[in-house]
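Build the 3D complex.
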Amino acid sequence: MGLESIISDIEISLNLEKDAEIVYKSIKPEVLTAPSQRSKLNIKRDKKKILFKIIAEDSHAYRASLNSILRWVIISLDILKLMKRGDI
Amino acid sequence: MGLESIISDIEISLNLEKDAEIVYKSIKPEVLTAPSQRSKLNIKRDKKKILFKIIAEDSHAYRASLNSILRWVIISLDILKLMKRGDI
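Done.
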């Protein structure tokens, strides 16, 4: 197929810098060890922004990496919300 | 939820500059008129790279915009492949 690569920088801004720090620390190991032959991930943090980079060979690998990233961030935020409410 | 925004730059490189030109011209109207209250899209081209920007308020709006973009690019490439093979 005519597609050579998909490279993307994704900047997820959270409301609170504290939340960004917690989410970043909790998902960083997942991001850096995510097993994929066809895509590479990187993660950084800048205050309340979590910065991801995805380098993928095709759209399937890109979509899979992106879905993983979004899922990790959303799960972490959901857990944080429960903790703040004292539910866990 | 703790998420404020998702902003991403996506660079899709195609094998041929000619393909990038055709795909860019064919999907640009879709990208610029895509109806969404919760995300904004932009598209540019640089030789054989098509450059997208998504600014979304939440992960659902982001995912919807991204899926549309990937679908438009893949459909355009599939049609190009069929045309080159003389099937259409």
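Helices of chain A lie at 17-33, 59-84.
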